[in-house]
């Protein structure tokens, strides 16, 4: 019996995190990083019940009538107008470089973090360990993001891994990028050899624009337009926002455009529950691109409407000063 005691006391601390040994082995194999350092890093991560609670009540569970009120406030619109005006030269330079309308770059920051004011206070390492190793419903996704976080080189992060803060889901910076998005779409726009999505505005704006561009943003393309169904409109089951029907086909099924649209344009149809009943929208490629950022159609519509309000506000200010 006594011979077993030294072995028991020698059990590594990382055994407390389920699956950690395998994770460390994979990261060390793929990157050459020191397993001891990786285990020490993960030893400092804590399972957070508040993170598990938060992921069980996402804002996207609300109907559109309530969801819209979160993001289309006058305060958020006015702050977006001010942000656009204050950083206009940089925004328009990056917008032209990537072919993305600047107001949509601003709107992403507005919806995600209120233009950088609320980037999240959870430790990113805690969030991804909690969801990747203790949350079975989405463990595969979050474990992959945790692995990516551990594999990212230092010059692609805003600071040491154990100091990073973000959302309960492990998203970081003004644009709330997950580790795989930092890896795949992060841009060193200021040319300092470091991608900093927390402190470098050029990096932040260019990374959001690059994300849109790499997902197929159509320069000058529409995002959404209202549709008016008739009494005999064909009920449609829409699984996602992928454009799959022409406007002409949707019109034949009983959904009339409220404005002039190209009959041959490829679109989808979204129905959202507004304050006064169902709202029907033709949605296009750029709407689909926004849903690559967050798959909720309500998210994409909130970004679209906030962007439009910001653009109108900037244009209105210009007209008033002429």
From TrEMBL:
Top-level taxon of the source organism: Bacteria
Q: Tell me which InterPro entries the record gives.
A: Lysozyme-like_dom_sf, Lytic_transglycosylase_MltB, MltB-like, SLT_2
Q: Where does the signal peptide begin and end?
A: 1-15
* Limits of the Transglycosylase SLT domain: 21-308
Keywords (alphabetical) are: Signal
Look up keyword Iron-sulfur and say if it applies: no
Q: What Pfam family is a match, any one?
A: SLT_2
What NCBIfam families does UniProt report for this protein, alphabetically?
A: MltB
Kindly provide the name given to this protein in its UniProt entry: Lytic murein transglycosylase B
């Amino acid at each position: 019996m006594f011979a077993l005691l030294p072995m028991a006391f020698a059990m590594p601390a990382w055994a407390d995190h389920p699956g950690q040994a395998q994770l460390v082995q994979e990261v060390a194999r793929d990157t050459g990083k020191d397993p001891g350092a990786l285990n020490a890093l993960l030893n400092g991560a804590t399972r957070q019940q508040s993170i598990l609670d938060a992921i069980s009540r996402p804002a996207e569970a609300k109907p559109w009538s309530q969801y819209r009120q979160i993001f289309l406030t006058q305060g958020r619109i006015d702050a977006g107008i001010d942000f656009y005006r204050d950083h206009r030269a940089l925004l328009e330079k990056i917008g032209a470089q990537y072919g993305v309308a600047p107001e949509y770059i601003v709107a992403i920051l507005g919806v995600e973090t209120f233009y950088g004011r609320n980037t999240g206070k959870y430790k990113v390492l805690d969030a991804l360990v909690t969801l990747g190793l203790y949350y079975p419903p989405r463990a595969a996704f979050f474990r992959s993001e945790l692995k990516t976080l551990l594999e990212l080189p230092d010059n692609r992060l805003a600071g040491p891994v154990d100091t990073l803060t973000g959302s309960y889901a492990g998203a970081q910076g003004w644009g709330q990028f997950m580790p795989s998005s930092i890896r795949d779409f992060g841009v060193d726009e200021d040319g300092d050899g470091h991608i900093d999505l927390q402190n470098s505005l050029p990096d932040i704006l260019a990374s959001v624009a690059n994300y849109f561009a790499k997902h197929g943003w159509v320069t000058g393309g529409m995002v959404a337009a209202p549709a008016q169904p008739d009494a005999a409109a064909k009920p449609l089951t829409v699984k996602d926002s992928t454009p799959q029907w022409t406007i002409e086909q949707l019109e034949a099924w009983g959904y009339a455009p409220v404005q002039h649209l190209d009959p041959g344009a490829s679109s989808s149809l979204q129905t959202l529950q507004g304050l006064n009943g169902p709202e029907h929208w033709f949605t296009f490629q750029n709407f689909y691109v926004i849903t690559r950022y967050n798959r909720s159609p309500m998210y994409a519509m909130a970004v679209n409407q906030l962007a439009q309000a910001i653009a109108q506000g900037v244009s209105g200010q210009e007209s008033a000063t002429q």
